[in-house]
Design goal:
Elements lengths: L1 H6 L3 E7 L2 E4 L1 H6 L5 H6 L12 H14 L3 E8 L6 E13 L2 E10 L1
Antiparallel strand pairs: 1-2, 1-5, 3-4, 4-5
Length: about 110
Amino acid sequence: MKPVLEKSEQAIYIYLDDNHKVCNKKFADLLGYKSPQEWADAEAPLSDVVEEDQQAVMTAYESAMARMVASAIEIRFKNVKTSKIVKTRMILVPIAHQGHLFALHFLSGT
């Protein structure tokens, strides 16, 4: 997935579980993280999602994993540096690699 993460014009993160996740620099910058690694090291991956939208992200993820369906939802993130609200449209797509199901998330501004 390295070419997609590096060359996409969109902010992207890939999520397996709280310990196995990765994002591109555009995603890290959008949310005020110093680097993709700083975001990956965060223990609570939904802590940057506005609380009212956390359930929507979890529901979309669960649908992707259980039913193999993609979702497009409006999500508000909070920039960790400025606390500014960033409105996004997130496309969540299930993918499989080496027997593991992941969710690939593409974000664009609204």
